Amino acid sequence: MSKDYYKSLGISRDATEDDIKKAYRKMALKYHPDKNKAANAEEKFKEISEAYEVLSDKKKKDIYDSYGEEGLKGGIPGAGPGENFSYTFSGDPHATFETFFGGTDPFAQFFPSSGPGGPGMFNSGGPGMFQSFGGNNDFFNIADNLFPGGGGGGNVGRSHTFHSGMSGPGPERKKQDPAVTYDLEVSLEEILTGTSKKMKISRQVLNPDGLTSKIEDKVLCITIKPGWKAGTKVTFSKEGDARPNNIPADVIFVIRDKPHPKFKRDGSDLRYTAKLGLREVCADMSSNHISGLHEVSV
Question: What's the pTM value of the predicted model, to 2 decimals?
Answer without folding.
Answer: 0.43
